[in-house]
Structures are given as C-alpha cells and as structure tokens.
Amino acid sequence: MKWLALPLLASALLTGCASDTGALQRDHGYVLEWIGERPLIDNSHLTMTLGEDGRAYGNAGCNHWFASYRLDGDSISFGPVGSTRKMCAPALMEQEHRFLEAMGKVEHWDVSDVQQLELWPAQGLPLRFWPEKG
Questions:
Q1: Of 54, 89, 104, 108, which residue is 20 to 30 A from 68 by alpha carbon distance?
Q2: What's the confidence (pLDDT) of residue 53?
Q3: Quick one: pLDDT at residue 134?
Q4: Residue 81, Cβ neighbours under 10 Å: how many?
Q5: How many Cβ atoms are within 10 Å of 122's Cβ, its own excluded?
Q6: How far apart are CA 95 and CA 5, in angstroms?
Q7: If you average pLDDT over every residue of the chain, what do you get?
Q8: Cβ neighbours of 5 (radius 10 Å)
Q9: Model confidence at 23, in pLDDT bands (50, 70, 90)?
Q10: Angstrom distance (rounded) from CA 58 to CA 41
Q11: What is the DSSP letter of 120?
Q12: Nearest to 26 by CA among 64, 57, 65, 61
C-alpha cells in the first residue's frame, strides 16, 4: 500500500506546474483578479485571451488591448501593447495603465494551488487570472 502513496503524492505535487502544457489554455479567456499587490476596482472587468496565432488580446477595463506574445515552456513575454483610446473615470484609467504596463514586464507563468494563472514579472508580485467560465 505504501508504494501507491508515492505516485499519488508526486502527481499531486506536479499539478499546476508550468511544465504541464495543458495548464495554460490558448484560445480561452481569462479574467484578471489582481495586478501585483492590488485587487481590481469593484465591477471592473479586465480580460486576456492568448490566441493560438501568437496574438494576445482582451479588455483592459476601459479599452480593448492587444499584443503579440511568445511562449516557450514556462517563459512568456509580450510584445508592445496597444489599445483603443477611450477615456473613462480616472481610477479606471490608472488601473488600466498599471495593467498594460505590467503586461510588458511579464517573464514567466505558472498555475497556483487554487488554479489561478499567474503571470510573473522579473520583480514583484504576479498578475493573477481566473479561467473564464463557459
């Protein structure tokens, strides 16, 4: 019976690792919950989709955003981020600016114990996303 426990433990420890290629879903939406150390403003809706074609896009809270991205194992990087140019409330615009700036600093990804996609910059805390339902 003890020999059964080791493979089960190893499997549990590997769940959510970036090396699990099925953990990062392409052509599926993610909803942002945190930008580094700060949660999002109530009722704001920031999203990200990583297309199979190497293009990322979504809603930055006020504007739509887009960028190229490169994925190599657990490394991910985004090209220059562009967006539409609507104006919204100052607090939403500040949050959007922080989000778009943070996306340009992302270097690697992983999946947390609670199944959140985390995009990590070289320094600091990650952007944390939930997979969209549906």
A1: 89
A2: 96
A3: 65
A4: 19
A5: 8
A6: 46
A7: 85
A8: 9
A9: confident
A10: 17
A11: E
A12: 57
Beta bridge partners of 39: 34
Task: Specify which residues 34 forms β-bridges with.
Answer: 39, 128
Which residue has 């887009």 as its token pair?
A: 66
Residue with tokens 């981020």: 81
Would you say how long the chain is, in residues? 134
- pTM, full prediction: 0.79
Q: Which domains does the chain have, with CATH numbers?
A: 2-131 (2.40.128.270)
The two structure tokens encoding residue 69: 């991205």
Dump pLDDT digits (tens) for 52-68: 999 999 999 999 999 99
The total of other beta-carbon atoms located within 10 Å of residue 70's CB is 10
